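User: Some background: our group keeps a shared notebook of sequences we're curious about, and every so often someone picks one and asks for a predicted structure to add to the entry. Today it's my turn. The entry only has the sequence so far, pasted here. Could you supply the structure so I can complete it?
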Amino acid sequence: MYFQNHYRQDSPFRILRKLQNERGEISEEKVSRACAALKQKGFIYDFSQSKKNSFNDRVRKRDFLIIVMPFRKIWFQVKSSNCGVQNHLKKNTDVPVIKIEPQYSTEDVERILIEKFSLSVQV
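Assistant: Of course. Here's the predicted structure to add to the notebook entry:
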């Protein structure tokens, strides 16, 4: 009975979860655009995004894969809050994480990726 009332369609918990999911989707979209720009500029060879609720997304905690020459793969997780970053790092020390907030521009995200993964233009 508690859970039925606790998670009603209009409950604050459901609304908060929906807002968190939307914020995460915005952050991932910015990373996708930044990766496309970095590919075009020659910083990365290619990239891929894990499908929502896939094995890589839910179990391995991997949102994106970037490939740099000579075909080195870098998986990473995207979070939109400090709390999300801390929770990820407590459980997944082998998967790097970047924090992307909704107000960041695509250029901000490009800069974060370049610095985090020491990217340079591929020859």
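Suggested note for the entry: Residues 44 and 61 are 21 Å apart (CA to CA). The chain has five helices and four strands.
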